[in-house]
Amino acid sequence: MTAITETHRPNLPKPKSTASRAHRLAERGVDTKLLMLLPAIVFALVLFVYPFSYGIGLTFQPLPEIQNQYGGGIFANYIAFFKDPFIFDSVWITMRLALPVALFNVIVSIPIAFKLRHKFRGKRFMSTLLVLPITLGTVLTAQGLLIFAGRQGWLNRFLMDTGIISQPLPLVNNYLGVVFSLVISGFPFAYLLISSYLSGIDPSLEAAAKTLGANWKQRFTKVTLPLLAPGLATTFILTFVLAFSVFPSARLVGDPLGSTRVMALMAYRSFAEQINYSMASTIAIMMGVVELIVIAIVLLGRSFLYKGSTGGKG
Amino acid sequence: MSNFTAQHDSAATELVDITANRNRGKLPPGEKPLVASPGTWFVWAGVAVFFIFLFGIITSVVVDSFGKGWFTTWLPQEFTVSWYQDAWTRFDLTHILGVTLIVAFVVVIVSILVGVPAAYMLARRNFPLKRLVMVLFLLPILIPPITFGIPLATVMYNFGLGRTLLAVILVNLVPSIPFVIITMTPFIEQINPSIENAARMCGASMRQVFVRVLTPLLVPGILAAGILILVRTVGMFELTFLVSGPQSDTLVVAIYRAMTSAGGSEARALVSSMGVIYTAMMLVILIIALRFINPTQLVAQVKEARED
Amino acid sequence: MSLTASAFDTLELKDVGRSFGGREALADLNLTIRAGEFIALLGPSGCGKSTALNCLAGLLPLTHGQILIDGKRIDVLPSEKRDFGMVFQNYALFPHLSVAKNVAFGLEVRGVPKAEVKRRVSEAIALVKLEEHAKKLPGQLSGGQQQRVAIARAVVLEPRIVLMDEPLSNLDAKLRLDMRTEIRRLHQSLGLTTVYVTHDQEEALSLADRLVVLREGRVQQIGTPTELHNNPANWHVADFMGYRNLLDMELTEVSGTQARVSGHGLSLVATLAQPARPGDTVRMAVRPHDLNVVTDHTVTTGRNVFTGRVGVVEYQGREFAVEVTTSTGQRLFVHAETAPQVGDEVTLVLDPARALVYQQSLDANVSDEERERQVLAEVGS
Fold this sequence. Notes:
The complex is a heterotrimer of chains A (314), B (308) and C (381).
Chain A: H1 21-27, H2 38-59, H3 64-70, H4 76-83, H5 85-115, H6 123-131, H7 133-136, H8 138-148, H9 154-161, H10 175-199, H11 203-211, H12 216-244, H13 248-252, H14 263-273, H15 277-305
Chain B: H1 2-24, H2 38-66, E1 67-68, E2 78-79, H3 82-90, H4 93-124, H5 130-142, H6 145-158, H7 165-189, H8 193-201, H9 206-235, H10 238-243, H11 251-260, H12 265-292, H13 296-306
Antiparallel strand pairs in B: 1-2
Chain C: E1 10-20, E2 23-34, E3 38-42, H1 49-57, E4 64-69, E5 72-73, E6 84-87, H2 99-109, H3 114-127, H4 143-155, E7 161-165, H5 173-190, E8 193-198, H6 201-207, E9 210-215, E10 218-223, H7 225-230, H8 235-240, E11 245-255, E12 258-263, E13 266-272, E14 281-286, E15 291-293, E16 304-315, E17 320-325, E18 331-336, E19 345-350, E20 356-359, H9 366-380
Parallel strand pairs in C: 3-8, 3-9, 6-7, 7-8, 13-20
Antiparallel strand pairs in C: 1-2, 1-4, 4-5, 9-10, 11-12, 11-14, 12-13, 14-20, 15-19, 16-17, 16-19, 17-18
């Protein structure tokens, strides 16, 4: 047996890593493969971050006319925004359209999603039909509304021929027309979302409530609705944002200079007709701000009303 | 008035029939009968109204596009296809359709080529600032088009790209690339990473792993995302409208311009015919798409293998 | 079968370690593997064996140490350049490719000419006896068949080393035994150097030329199956090797390697497996097979003899596993040729050479012991 001359190894403090540097970087997830992310990041920076921040910066470079009219130096655009009623009123006008439409879309989707969630003959067909308008688009819907719901259109004809009304209803080229358009394009979207949230709620929860003696109304208000609330809030926010950004419908089936003078139209007017890029950006940014405020309010409200998970896949 | 009661009666009869069927056990197992409650009434009424509007709109446009002299009557006085021919030549629809399809396909292809590798990185790696990058990709989808579109269009004009095809393509990339990233990331996450490891141990470089292993498995997801972007880009109005011009309008924008030019019933039928062409194009895209999005064998293979 | 043996002499892991998140998953791994050897990495979950394998594969980066083949560093190479074959626990077959295409993958990726690919693939498939399934997709195969495809895919490349990560743990018991024989047969006929990770000591003992027992990221012992089985380096390895009787005793006398220990109502002569001093509290390890119930022809001279009361009797085919309690209630697992009655008092015999005495602490002096054994093992061969 050969003599063992190994020295006893004392407990030294851990020596510095002797692994290669490439290994140490790879440990943190950094290596050449990260370059795969590069095109997407470049795109996001060049086509989104830069223009957006440029736009924000632009809002602080008002045209001389605006400065002269409203004063306030670099804030002139914002002052103009709040002081010019033609522009400022558009906030309320847009809100007047978007809020009710979003509420309507969400609230109406609930019972419909509820009833349609069980399997029944032709469910797939029905679901496909309900989702159809998403492919139509706002411009088509507008044209269709103008014809169908116009003074000479089938809807008015039917109502007059059956004696329900004696004069054709003004359903287009006004507030109502835009509402119809927004509901037709917005409802399927809200329905889809709420359907999927509904299906994420564990059905055994309702079954449990049933066995405990709750009737359908109690089950709905005490079990389903609270669980659905977060999803409802999200759907409302998304539907609201969609409706608030309304643009072509407001022009085509609305009254663009009057009751449907929405913010998007005002922004476009500044952009393309007045070539006032800084004002246009200002209005566009303020659109985003208003939406953010509404979103914040909804989210705040949601966190007060319900805390917890949906008890299912949700 | 009498029509109403008639409708009411038939609906009630239908409900009675359904409950009767339930008692006779005629419905196949697993399908609940539609309960005859007031809630059902409301639901069906609401759905009916929605569909009435929907079909009314679609049919109106179609009829209008084939009609001549449709003013005060239920149907046009004559039927003709001249509007289509008129629209085609006057608005140079071949050019516009070409532009629309080119823009849509370029956007789809670029979005996928840029988005899928990025999604792969987000799915597989944790790296510094990952959260920030994810927010960066989420923003263009959350922020509404007009809000970032107007500054973006301003920049385009500043760079002399106003009204060009390139500008239309670029602006449409902004919501599309993040969309690909966000839909493909979970798709990639569900592929077992040891499959990639096995490929690497067999000697495959990253590129080979991507081409030979990942892409075939990702095809269903890529196709689905691609179709959605295609439909979205063809239907995208706001962003395209802000930067396009007569030579680079897509069909939607062209229709809008036609509608907002000097109007009248004649021009209206012209617009309707363009609208029908647009809808037809969408339908064709969707039908072709549905043939590809259900390669049931491919999906089934992946599913079975994963269920080990 | 025309597969050639691996084209290298030694693979050395030097001070290999990996820590992440502040935790040491693997530390101070020193191992030299010779071409053609079958090495098993054995230990409970979390002991670092899979980490070691993945570091060897290049799928995980090292934080310490080096890996060398014939003196050249390979830990700086990416996995795809190391020329190792790997078989995964969940098979990791490409779900969209047929069996044949799965096996052909590595060859195609290297640009091997088509005719050769075809030849080698059919040889490999024949080797694992899956000829009639060559065109099927993985989803259509059973677990055992998938595992064989995974093996074929790894060996067709004639890699320098085959790495196997608990390949049999997802199979049911009978299939596991069959596949174990298959793997042994393949190793004997192909002679490919293999590093095999498992938590099943029976599997490791039956397949390996040498075993590496790991615990909490550190090597406990490296040796041949016989060495580990008969001379475990510490009580943890003994425990793993089936020394079910682990008793804390007091060391009363020492003379040379012999020791007297007492505890639990017993006073026994035992053998020191690790250095210890009288007065130490030590742990004695005995295999059930070495604790026998006395029969008429049992030799008792020079052996420990004591009594106990029978608690549980288990039938094991040709013998019986019996649980016996001492006067103080300590349970012992013993071995009997005929079934005693529950409640009987029986006499047990224990050879001092098979009663191994260890230190209670597992950390002290392990590295020294380990180094000693390893050097001995290498010098001896």
